[in-house]
Amino acid sequence: MWTFIHKLGSPPWFFGFSGTLVRWLLPVTVTLLLVGAVWGLLVAPPDFRQGNSYRIIYIHVPAAVVALAGYYVMAFAGAVSLIWRIKMADVTMRAAAPVGAVLTAIALVTGAIWGKPTWGAWWVWDARITSMLILLFLYLGVVALFEAYENKTAAARACAVLSLVGMVNIPIIYKSVDWWYSLHQPASIKFTGESAIDSSMLYPLLLMILAFYCLFALTLLLNMRAELLWNHRDSGWLKQLVGDI
Amino acid sequence: MPSDQPLLSLRVVFLRQFLRHGRSIMTSPADVANPLLFFFMVITLFPLGLGPDPTTLAALSPGILWVVALLASLMVSAKLFASDFEDGSLEQLALAPYPLAVTALAEISAQWLATGFLLALLSPLFGVMLGLPDEGLLTLSVSLLLGTVCLTLIGALGSALTVSIRRGGLLLSLLIIPLNVPVLIFGTTAVREAVLGGNPESWLALLGGLALGSLVVAPLAIGAALRVSLDS
Amino acid sequence: MYFESLAAVWHMDGHGFYVWLAYALTALPLVLMVWLPLKRIRQHWRWLQAEQRRSAAATQSTAMGSDV
């Protein structure tokens, strides 16, 4: 176990390992996404209250779930980077931020589109959409802070501090937005959709969540590989690797 | 500092740093007056924009007062560590054998006393101007008293992260605003509850919890962020 | 299969526009998210290969120069 973690911190080993992983993950992710989308779009029955528009949740909910998990991945990498000063952790954090931001934006856009047939407005200050918006700001803050520093080692450490504080704050933000929404909720658009979801609708949703997790891992690894190639363009191991192929 | 001199206790260090920063604030009263003036002027804009109808203004006033307080805190934190960073005294502090978290917290406390605390004391005045019902005035003051502690600490963190960056102003607001959301929600809800005759105590308690929590966490993060800024 | 015809899939009882818009607006960034880093990797790889050829040519020419 420990040797595995030690290996993860070594760029040459990680480059080879992630190459194998990507080769497997790419077809798996594409298959899962296609199967999940077809299942959710064509096979699953419509919701008896919302009709067919509910099919948007098959991308909205997975994007929202994985975007939130992505912030924790980023903050965890930030903690590792701060405590052990491992370069690979910096690269992970750097690669996770834009991926998470895009997923958050997808969750926001699909949430807004879902709101139009459901509530009759493109934008409603609903609890989940509002928290997603704040999560987007948190991501953009990390990305912008990283870009603002010229010294990239310092940038990674500053982003690590910020993302750790954000991680402590996220549960408080989500809870406070929840309370805020339930206090101001007008009775007309109340949507207590906490009823048990039928398995014919649940399975494609779970599949899509799995697919989005794979997608997150895939894009994270690809971004890390691109970053590594550039950062280590003068290293011996990479020159040897290029020469071998 | 000669090495044979014994280390001071953290309490003394805190107090000295607090007084040093307090004195430097005293020398420029404009820095104390500016946020209050900003608050006053923005409050004036709202009746002009929304119309003078007292019931509308009264209904919106908790939100307005809190949002403007948040904006004022942004303005203050933009230059919290700037002068210390430029004249090198921050570097001296980082080299001193005391935790940066403690010395930074001393500066922030002095800053809070000169801005957040004053704002909280004067806020009922502004509340009256916007027609906030009398029941809400005390809660407004107390909520701002607790809330500005959080706002100042979070603002200081943003300032510490961006102090070495040229044109960090907009970036600072991007970093700070999302972190301030819970403070804003708890604060406005407390005032609104007080006006509507509900119980603001639970919301004030939440604010107090946030203030205590950020008093514990924020100085550590600020210390780390200042070291990053000095290294870059 | 829930729908009976292709037209029904497209129309989705009036919600088709929203559903397909949401899926399209998701598919586009997803494809870009995978394609852009792949492109960057390929570019960097080519650059590294070109660099290696260049340095190989340089060492070869200096070696020949020392022979003469």
Topology:
The complex is a heterotrimer of chains A (245), B (232) and C (68).
Chain A: H1 2-8, H2 11-43, H3 57-84, H4 87-119, H5 127-148, H6 152-184, H7 199-231, H8 236-244
Chain B: H1 10-27, H2 29-50, H3 54-77, H4 82-86, H5 89-95, H6 100-114, H7 116-129, H8 134-162, H9 169-196, H10 201-231
Chain C: H1 6-11, H2 16-67
Per DSSP E runs of 2 or more residues, the count of β-strands of chain B stands at 0
Q: Which structural class is indicated by helix and strand composition of chain A?
A: mainly alpha
Question: What number is the mean pLDDT of chain B?
Answer: 90
Mean pLDDT score of chain A, rounded?
87
Q: Would you list the SSEs of chain B in sequence order as H and E?
A: HHHHHHHHHH
Please give the count of helices of chain A.
Answer: 8
Into which percent range does the helicity of residues of chain A fall? Answer: over 70%
What is the domain tally of chain B? 1
Instruction: Please summarize the sheet with the most strands of chain B.
Output: none
Structural commentary:
The complex is a heterotrimer of chains A (245), B (232) and C (68). With 245 residues, chain A is an all-alpha fold. Chain A has one domain. Chain A is globular and about 60 Å long. In chain A, helix 3 packs antiparallel against helix 4 (87-119) and helix 3 (57-84) packs across helix 6 (152-184). Chain A is 81% helix and 0% strand. Chain A has 8 helices and no strands. Chain B is 83% helix and 0% strand. The mean pLDDT of chain B is 90. Chain C is built from 2 helices and no strands. The longest helix of chain C has 52 residues, at 16-67. Chains in contact: A-B, A-C. Chains A and C meet through helix 2, helix 3, helix 4, helix 7 and helix 8 of A and helix 2 of C.
List keywords for this structure.
heterotrimer, A: 245 residues, mainly alpha, 8 helices, C: 68 residues, 0% strand, rod-shaped
Write a brief structural summary.
The complex is a heterotrimer of chains A (245), B (232) and C (68). With 245 residues, chain A is mainly alpha-helical.
